[in-house]
Amino acid sequence: MPLTLQLLNDTYSIHRLQPNAKVPATVLGAPFFAVTRTDDELSIVIPQSVQLDSENQESDWRCLKVLGPLDFSLTGILARISNVLAEAEISIFAISTFDTDYILIKSAKTEKAINTLQRAGYTIQDDAS
């Protein structure tokens, strides 16, 4: 069952910091951010306009939000989207929250990703904010 995805306006960066690093205060003030800490690293996704000092960074990502909220009983949503994009040779960086999923794609692949998803039956909306 194809869903509606929303292309968010911002461009994002993905940062890698040491696993024991503190989350910078500038992150907490951002309109959108994701923070994941493991034994190996601290990863932060944040709008590219927010400057962050990190040991490694990947810039120029766009974000597609699966409009939800999605019920936990639903299965395969992220798998189907990622498979459609993988078949078109578009890599992703996925973030899941309690309510929905976010799929980051490199800016240069945005148009191709949108066209690919639309051909697969997904509806794509621009960010209304």
Structural overview:
This protein is of the alpha+beta class and 129 residues long. It is built from three helices and eight strands; from the N terminus they run ββαβββαββαβ. Strands 1, 2, 3, 4, 5, 6, 7 and 8 form an eight-stranded mixed β-sheet that branches. Strand 6 (93-96) and strand 7 (101-106) form a beta hairpin. The chain starts with a strand and ends with a strand.
- Uncertain segments: none
Using the alpha-carbon principal axes, give the shape. Answer: elongated
The CATH topology, please? VC0802-like
Q: Counting H and I runs of at least 4 residues, what is the number of helices?
A: 3
Helix and strand sequence:
EEHEEEHEEHE
Radius of gyration: 15 Å
CATH superfamily placement? VC0802-like
DSSP, total strands: 8
Structural class: alpha+beta
The name of the CATH architecture is: 2-Layer Sandwich
Q: What percent of residues are in strands?
A: 25-35%
Please describe the biggest sheet, giving its number of strands, its sense, and whether it closes into a barrel.
Answer: 8 strands, mixed
Q: Number of folding domains?
A: 1
Determine the fraction of residues in helical runs and give it as a percent range. Answer: 10-25%
CATH class: Alpha Beta
Distance N terminus to C terminus? 26 Å
Arithmetic mean pLDDT: 90
